Amino acid sequence: MRHAMHNLCWILHKDLLTELRSRGAWSTMVLTGIVVAVIFSVQSEAAAAYKQQTIGCLLWMAVFLAAIPMMDRGFAIERENGCWDGLRQLPVAGSVIFIAKLAANVLALGILECLLMPLFFVLSSVPLPGGAGPLVLVALLANIALASVGTTVGCLGVGRRSGAALVVLVLPLLIPVLLAAAECTRLTVAGNAGEVYWRWLQLLAVFDVLFVAAGLVLFETASEE
Amino acid sequence: MNEATRGAMWRFAALRIVLAAWLATAVWLALGFAPTERTMGDAQRIVYVHVPVAWLGLLWMLVTAGCGAAYLVRRNLWWDAWAHSAAEVGWVCCSLTLVTGSLWARSAWGTWWEWDPRLTTAFILWLIYSGVLFARSSVEEPHRRARVGAALAILGSLDIPMVVMATRWFRGLHPMNPEMTPAMRITLLVGVVGWTAAFAWLANLRRKQIGMERIVRQSQSVLEAAC
Predict the structure, then answer these.
(1) Where are the beta strands (DSSP E) in A27-159?
(2) Closest residue by Cα to residue A36 from A111, A119, A108, A112
(3) Which residues between 134 and 153 in chain A have a beta carbon less than 8 angstroms from any beta carbon of chain B?
(4) Least confident span in A89-93, A202-206, B132-136
(5) β-sheet bridge partners, residue B41
(6) Does B151 reach chain A within 8 Å, measured CB to CB?
């Protein structure tokens, strides 16, 4: 167990270093988010109520479009450098590699959202009456689902030829998660984080459990060459 | 041709005749036997095709995921051929569900499409099928293609509970357990059994074709290597 934890921390450290050093990927990711935020915010004629209704949907689409190519790129770089083959030859269980990569992707998504969320809310002047707490909870649950599907499908290497392929494959699988996250965000912005909000949050949690369990089962076979 | 092969051929021919007769009965029941619904009129008869293909759309996704899982355990391409044919037949059923549903909606709601929870989740299922088939077509090596197809189908099947429970969890326009007379129920039941058998036959046929395609490709590569 201690050995597995040590391996997990080591892979997580390596992945986070790789992520943080790939400045080109981060600038593309953040720019994608900024472009969506700016287009949404410059609709100065749009009513405040309309912006409140749509901010969740656009925020999560921006996160999705920015994040999924990043996850695929992470695997592509490892494959190009032969790092992936080296990693698979180490006496480390596939589930440990999956959890480490999942954690790295969740953290990377968290950093991306720390930049995008304030930007969306500041630029569009949409208030957040209940504070950031309920939104952080939504982001955490949505990130786990996004990262688990992105990690499993990215590992298959289907998008090796074009990153767009991965977006096409992953979007249908993640529509329920994106819908739930957008709906939770809309309810938070409306200051209505009550029973309905918790029901959507439960749905997110169910998808987290399902996708992480499926990832743990599938990662070993998906990562075969 | 030996006696056993001839016997099997006769049995298959008899099965095909039974299937064709069953489907003809289902069509006759839907168009001639079932009473005309009071409020919707003849447009309601679409339900006798829509419900069976909708149920088959869900069923084939589970079959695709199940056969994919069986491939991952056994590493036998026979399972992958089943997963591939099930995904293709499921895609056809899902497409038919959307088309027949849209035709019915035009008559019942006055619009071709509505972002109702059940319609949206059915569309998501269609996208998942399309994604699985698209991913499969982008990979050449048979075992890698099988792994990609299996993983995506298993992940996609996790959305099935949401498709099934959409009308219970979220309020929408799609009818839930509409009232039906016994004649309507019998017609629907015959249709469900008939279309299930017909699409199962189609999937089996496609599975055999995929198997034969693989054998031809293997023979081609052996011949090319020999030359």
Answers:
(1) none
(2) A119
(3) 149, 152-153
(4) A89-93
(5) B37
(6) yes
Number of domains in chain A: 1
Report residue A147 as tokens: 């990262």
- Closest to B71 in 3D by CA, of B90, B59, B87: B87
- CA–CA separation, A190 and A114 (whole Å): 21
**What is the three-class DSSP state of B37?**
strand
How many CB pairs below 8 A link A and B? 67
pLDDT in tens, B213-227: 989 988 888 888 887
Nearest chain A residue to B162, by CA: A176
Which of B152, B157, B169 should we substitute to test contact with A (largest number of A Cβ atoms within 10 Å)?
Answer: B152
How far apart CA A146 and CA A173 sit, in angstroms, is 10
Min Cα–Cα distance to chain B from A218, Å: 6
DSSP B72-126: HHH--HHHHHHHHHHHHHHHHHHHHHHHHHHHHHHHHTSSS----HHHHHHHHHH
- Containing structural domain, residue A26: 2-222
Q: What angle do CA A34, A112, A194 make, to 5 degrees?
A: 95
Radius of gyration of chain A, Cα coordinates, nearest whole angstrom: 18
B170's tokens: 């979220």
Token readout for A183 is: 């709906």
- Residue recorded with tokens 């469900």: B192
CB A186 within 8 A of CB A52: yes
Q: Which residues of B touch A217 (CB under 8 A)?
A: 154
Report which DSSP code applies to B29.
I
Q: Closest to B159 (Cβ–Cβ): which among A156, A168, A173?
A: A173
| CB within 8 Å of A162: residues ≥ 6 apart | none
**Each residue of A37-94: pLDDT tens digit?**
888 777 756 677 788 888 888 899 989 888 877 777 777 777 777 888 888 888 888 8
A158 in contact with B at a CB cutoff of 8 Å? Answer: yes
Which residue of A162, A175, A209 to mutate against B (max B Cβ within 10 Å)? A175
CA A3 to chain CA centroid, Å, is 28
Distance of CA B43 to CAs B23, B50, B93, B107, B174, Å?
A: 20, 12, 20, 7, 15
Q: Which of A49-63, A184-198, B53-67, B152-166 has the highest mean pLDDT?
A: B53-67
Cα B29 to Cα B34: distance, rounded to the nearest angstrom: 6
